[in-house]
Amino acid sequence: MNEESPNSCKNCGYVSKGYFCPRCGQRVGIHKITFRETLDDLADNLLSVNAPLLITIRDLILRPGILLRSYLAGKRKTYYRPVSFFILMTVIYIVIRSLIGFDPFRNSMIVVEEGGMDTSLLTEARNYMLMNINNFLFTFVFTLALFMKLFFYKWYSLAEFLVVSFYLLGIYTLIVTCNMFVVQWFGDQLQPMGILIMLSYFLYSMISLFQRRYFLVILKSLILFVFAFMTYAMSSYGLSYLIVSFKQG
């Protein structure tokens, strides 16, 4: 008589013969992350209050490598889902920004006194991008994941690096949210501090994730972050130009 072989739950380690773990409820048959699972994350329990948000934030800040490796290995119930985490941090940023009336680009607008239609259109596109930069942050998620795959192609799939990107840029949004208060109180000269802190945090996260050849990991991570950020900025500007052109046309 054939008996169903037991499987070990990748979230809590409990050995189960069924499809779901009786201890934590996670599906036992967890495999590698796919794009479908990541996209389902957007629709499934987007802002679930049952998800361990504080644990996720704590581990992403203090030990990001452990969280990322654990989640990619199948420990999905322990942490807040990556897409939900990113969106929640973005919503918190937008709400707080509106409440305190913060304009991060109030001194960055370009005023064109002379020039043709093309110059004016380029200027308006730039100003549109600056005013709606948070709406383009999804672009940064994908460019960061793409360059992580290019520079560390042997480690994880593109879908898995996309999960890493959602988590890390969720923390970036949290950093920018905290930096708003610093800029509001002490002046616009501290505006770049958010991106510098994020760069330092990104390098730390990459070291924590890969845990080997630290110098090479730092060098690769620094280069890919710059390329990803530049691609994000250029893509955002291109989209802004198309939107402004469409509105004027």
List keywords for this structure.
249 residues; transmembrane helix; mainly alpha; DUF3667 domain-containing protein; globular; two-stranded antiparallel ribbon; 2 domains; 64% helix
Report on the structure:
- By secondary structure, the protein is mainly alpha-helical.
- It folds into 2 domains: 1-30, no CATH class; 35-248, no CATH class.
- 64% of the residues lie in helices and 2% in strands.
- The chain is built from 9 helices and 2 strands.
- The protein has helices at 35-43, 53-62, 64-73, 82-100, 117-131, 137-151, 158-186, 193-210, 214-248; strands at 7-8, 15-16.
- Strands 1-2 form a two-stranded antiparallel sheet.
- A hairpin with a 6-residue loop joins strand 1 (7-8) and strand 2.
- Helix 4 (82-100) runs parallel beside helix 7 (158-186), helix 6 (137-151) packs across helix 7 and helix 7 packs antiparallel against helix 8.
- The protein starts with 6 loop residues before the first strand and ends with a helix.
**How much strand content do the residues show?**
under 5%
Order of strands in the sheet with most strands: 1-2
Backbone CA Rg: 21 Å
What's the number of structural domains?
Answer: 2
Report the principal-axis shape: globular
- Largest sheet properties: 2 strands, antiparallel
Number of strands: 2
What's the tally of helices? 9
Q: State the share of residues found in helices, binned by percent.
A: 55-70%
Rounded to the nearest angstrom, the distance between the terminal CA atoms is 73 Å
Mean pLDDT: 78
Q: Name the poorly predicted regions.
A: 1-5, 109-117
Provide the succession of SSEs. Answer: EEHHHHHHHHH
Q: What structural category arises from helix and sheet content?
A: mainly alpha
Protein name: DUF3667 domain-containing protein
Keywords: Membrane, Transmembrane, Transmembrane helix
InterPro entries: DUF3667
Transmembrane segments: 79-100, 133-152, 164-187, 193-210, 222-244
